[in-house]
Amino acid sequence: MEIRKAGLDDFKTINDLALKTWYDTYTSILSPEQLEYMLKEMYSLEAFTEQIAVKGHHFLLLSENDKYLGFASYELNYTSGTTKLHKLYVLPETQGRGAGRLLITTIEGLAKKNGNNKVSLNVNRYNDAVKFYLKNGFEKAGEEDVNIGNGYLMEDFIMEKGL
């Protein structure tokens, strides 16, 4: 498996991966209306451009044999000494093969290289990925309900891992 930095020209690839992973991940957790709302808010071209150009998010694409398997986004120095893992998604058929772990360890290495000593993330409290993050050394540091508009909440665990 190979990882490369992604840029604005990778929007379609990341959007396609998001569509393939989000329905599998969130259909049993979110209403169809909230799922559509969140995809539109987080994965439109405008949102993607803002995340990279304004908010300083970095995207990584994971591939194997010229097929894209997943992506992640992160922000160095989100707070002092902390890298924020904003997104990590791998195709359902790829899960369990080390793809997610490879994305995490890559981001951890980049965080350390840039003087950060912790990685933080938010994950839906009902998402099976909570187990994945615990297995990869993250600990629950709190809970947060984020109003994302249109009457919807993101009900998250805050998870952290020291480096």
Automatic annotation (TrEMBL):
Keywords in alphabetical order: Acyltransferase, Transferase
Stretches assigned to the N-acetyltransferase domain: 1-163
Coiled coil: none
CDD domains the UniProt entry points to: NAT_SF (cd04301)
GO molecular function: acyltransferase activity, transferring groups other than amino-acyl groups
Family annotation (PROSITE patterns): GNAT
Signal sequence extent: none
Superkingdom of this protein's organism: Bacteria
Protein name: GNAT family N-acetyltransferase
Species this chain originates from: Flavobacterium cerinum
